[in-house]
Amino acid sequence: MKDYFLLQYTMTNRKLADWGINPFVAYVLMVVGFIFLSEYLYSVTEFAGYVVLVVALSVLTNTSETQRNNFLLIVFGNSKYRKIRIIENVCISLPFSILLFYHNAFIESIALLTVAVVLAGLSFKANLNFAIPTPFYKKPFEFTVGFRNTFYLLPLAYALTVIALSVGNFNLGIFSMLLVVFISLTYYAKPENEYFVWSYAVKSPQFIFNKIKTGTVYTTFLALPILIAMVMFYPLKADEIVLFTLISLSFLWVTILAKYAAYPNQMGLPEAVLIAMCVYYPPLLIAVIPYFYYKSIKKLNILLK
Prior knowledge:
By secondary structure, this protein is mostly helical. The protein contains 13 helices and no strands.
């Protein structure tokens, strides 16, 4: 069992070293970034606790993937497997639980740890046995795959909008719209095979433009019910709604550019740190977007000429 966690630690250090990052510096930055972003989240919305719970549960759910857990069960046996899963889930949920406890959400903190232990004994299939139809078939990959993996989160965002409008909470309505954009951002976390990039018969700038255009159109399509409802209920705040929409879409653009700035590798800590800095201070997008653009063009020129 000790060997398993030592192996995970070693693999993580090697991956960080491959990215050219000192592991110690990376761990310090992750801790500081977690504290910094969480405090910023609590300062901008009263629903920060719910966001923390959703993020924590989504991470925990990923550790319950059936194929992964079957492998652990075969290698370590039932007894050690249970201990590994419990330790793993508790370690993952502990920072979120401490954060909730610090902000006086005692029940939520204890409930999260309890759920983490319960999930240690459960496994979920990563893929469904049937294909969920999507409206994104004309522009495949990110939204086709992403939508099928996160379709159940969109009704949650729409339900939050209904609640926001029923109780007259404008901020909750904006949060529900931002949630939809955040869901779209996750679709760009995994890089596609180089063949799917090479197959586009266009220059690198045109490829990037098409990706940004597709992401903008599809994300707006998903958020459109919320935007229409918000403008109808808060016509005097239409300018604020449009402003929040444009800012949130700019984070979609910077995420797309960051993906291809790191391509064919997955986005690493440097890209994540720059995006996190933009979250804290959005005007930085003016500098970060061109930086990622030129870096992504340089990477894509290898495949697209």
